[in-house]
Every structure is written in structure tokens, then in C-alpha cells.
Amino acid sequence: MTEDAAEDHAQDRWNAVDHYIDDLLVPEDDALTSALSASEAAGLPAISVAPNQGKLLHLLARIQGARTALEIGTLGGYSTIWLARALPADGRLISIEYDPAHADVARANLARAGCEKVAEVRTGAALDLLPRLAAEPGAGPFDLVFIDADKANNARYVEWALRLTRPGSVIVVDNVVRGGRVVDASADDPATNGTREMYRLVSEEPRLDATVVQTVGTKGWDGLLVARVVS
Ligand code: SAH
Ligand code: DHB
Ligand code: MG
What we know:
By secondary structure, this protein is of the alpha/beta class. It is built from eight helices and seven strands, in the order αααβαβαβαβαβαββ. It is 45% helix and 18% strand. α7 links the parallel β4 and β5. The structure holds S-adenosyl-L-homocysteine (SAH), 3,4-dihydroxybenzoic acid and magnesium ion (MG).
């Protein structure tokens, strides 16, 4: 078998196991499947978290007892719906999205899911909006932060997440393994370098206790960083 054929075979098996898991444990309702089909119809890239990853975000928020959450990188709002549904009816989720077309799709998807009272999408570059958010009276501390936008700025986003959380808050960062590129010395792209910078920052930050779990599945080989704000 060529290396490419072996990789295709592995991907087929990862997909099959994801579907097995989803069938048994991750029932998607109409609002979630519609969010994906509306995103696809609007031409958004198919890079939302996988269903079982969305469910993980939901469970982390529930386990944490989260009432408030911050998301950086909304896309069509698929992960946003999973998170919003973990919060109480009087909870609050703010999701930041750079692309106004993505934000429009996300707002419609959130409304269809009945999440419009809890979840608010703000349009703009996260590094512009985060300082404004931090200056708003009553904004934060957030109980959970999900970072899933432009990877080059991942370290900056973790710094903002630290400012906008409290001891006991949870911070999750998506796409931190990148098909193994994170340890590939020849990989020198901004997303990989930004991710490495984020690892360094987290490893040196006494206020954070963290791990990374590598994942395989429909989204290939990647991983999620999960951190707890210690102090
Ligand atoms: N969290 C979503 C997927 C997000 S994809 C889900 O799992 O369903 C990444 C998103 O980040 C894209 O929509 C992209 O437009 C947005 N993005 C990229 N750069 C950004 C920036 N500087 N500020 C805010 N959002 C950004
Ligand atoms: C990409 C971004 C993501 O957040 C993701 O989960 C997968 C892929 C991307 O930009 O290609
Ligand atoms: Mg992602």
C-alpha cells in the first residue's frame, strides 16, 4: 500500500468509528443538522467541530457548571449551539466572529436552535473586540472560553482568556496537534507557529493547569487543549 492509500484507509476507519460513536451517544436534532446544512449552503468551510467534539464542549460546560461562556471563532455557530445549550436559560454566551457573512449565518442558526436569548454573536477581529469586552461592566468573568479562530493569534487569545476568567474557569483550544505538524521541525506556517507559541505560554503560566488530548476522527488527526484556571 502506498502511504497515501494507507492514510485514506485510516481516515475511513476514523470516520466509521466517529459515526458509531455519534449514532450511540451524540444524537443531533434538527437545529444542529440544519446549522451544518445552512452553513454549507452559504458556502462556509466545513471546519466546525465534529459532533462528538461539540458534545465534549457541552459536557465540559455542564461539568463546570458554567453560566457564562466566551467563544472566539463562531463560523456558522455549530459549536456555539452545543455550548449555548449547556448554559442555563439566564446564562450568557458571547461568540466573536471576524467575517460578517459567517456571523449572519450563525445568528440565523442560533435563532433556529432557540439560542438567541443566551448566545450573542459579535462581528469583528477578536483582538479588537476582546479589549472592548474586557472594559464592559459586567462582562465576565466567563466560566468557559473556547478558542477556535485564527491559530496565529492563539497565544494572544489565551492571554485574553486569562483576563476574562476566574479561578476554576475552563479554557479549551481547538486544533492544537494539526496532523502532527506541531512537532514537525520543517513546519513553519503561521498557524503551527502560533499554536507552538500558545503551548509555550501555557506551559510557563502558573495560573493554568493544562493537558492536550490528541484526536482522530472525521476531522483527521488533531487535538484539543483543556486548561483549568488555577488562580
Ligand atoms: N467554532 C466553530 C468553527 C470556527 S472556524 C465551530 O466549531 O463550529 C474559525 C472561524 O474563526 C472562522 O469563521 C473565521 O472567520 C474566524 N476568524 C478568523 N480570524 C478571526 C479573528 N481574527 N477574529 C475573530 N474570528 C476570526
Ligand atoms: C481549520 C480551522 C479549524 O478551526 C478547524 O477545526 C479545522 C480547520 C482551517 O482553518 O482549515
Ligand atoms: Mg477548530
